[in-house]
Amino acid sequence: MTKEEEAGYQSSAPVPTGSEPPNGGLRAWLVVVGAWCTSFCSFGWINSVGAFQDYYQASLLKEYSASTISWIPSLQIFFMMALGPFIGLIYDKYGPRWLIIGGTFLHVFGLMMTSISTEYYQILLSQGVCSAVGVSAIFQPALNSIATWFTTKRGAAYGLLATGSSLGGVIFPIMVRRLIDEVGFGWAMRISAFLILALLIVAILTVTTHNPPKFQPITLKRMMTPFTEIQFSCLAMGLLLFTFGLYVPIDYVSVEAAQAGMDPNLAQYLVPILNAGSLFGRVFSGFAGDNWGRYNIFVSVCYLAGIFVLGLWIPAATDGARIAFATLFGFMSGAYVALIAALVVQISHPSEIGFRTGLIFLASSVGGLTTDPISGAILEKPIGWLGPKIFAGILCIVGTSFVLAARIHRTGWKLRVVF
Description:
Growth Hormone, Chain: A, 19 helices, disordered N terminus, MFS_trans_sf, membrane, transmembrane helix, transmembrane transporter activity, transport
């Protein structure tokens, strides 16, 4: 028996009909490899948007304001998440393969079109919309497929595949900046697109479901039913609010450091440092979640993420303090990507995993779309950088509190329950 079963709090999601998930074996781990590739090319790519924000402001789109340019990364995050319910319905009916094939085409085509774009609207459509729609179609089906192959080792599987986005967040910003300097913006985008294409071919060949998905037609009642469940509603609200807080450091840590006097050559590495810390945090969260409970681990480390924003980033006045914050925040916030799907699976019926995961991403997309514009507006206030930092820290803590409420609704106030 798992520790959850021993404690009397087994997940409400029963094992799907059909053969039992193998929880290992070559085929199951190949699915994790393919999902890792989608993670590298989706969240890993999105985590590098700061590199493009800097380049667009300084060169290609310098006649536009920073807030106007910020709609490009904001739309990328929004479309990646907002299409979740539609991607989930297609997944529930047809499985992951055709979604990943279509998503690969749109993602690569969007980046290729970006490489020849010179106008704001062209970049907005190609990188902010076309590529982002492709990203939505590749990462969610891979996440959902993991749940059909693993139960007892599900957290570890999610944690391992989530390291792909961290590694992508380390490699892509450095690679893009170096390539822009050496071969120009156009070829930097093309080389990135070719790398993404190669990795997604691996995903197309390896990502499958263990048991065939079961499609249920969408109705208004079906869409609203999950939100009548207290646990699901608290989880959705918590992840939405945490998304608001999460992307402020990711998008602004380098900009804030450079404006505070850090050498720009060092400041540009803060986002890769943050993502490197996140890599280890995601592995830890995945494996620890299997042993101590996924909700327990998420709540513990995400509270610390908010505390580090308020207690370390706000008073940070030296290069060392900012590097320490990027590392620690990256490690603690790694649970967001590593466990987000596992949290949904744990309170959902297997026949609705794709749809419910999509609803969670749809809710979170609001944060992804509006975080940068809201943070930019707050930044213009007299208190300057203090405003966005307080905004990020408070929302990380409040969002985590909603996830804690979902856990308490299931288990009560028993702290030692593994859930």
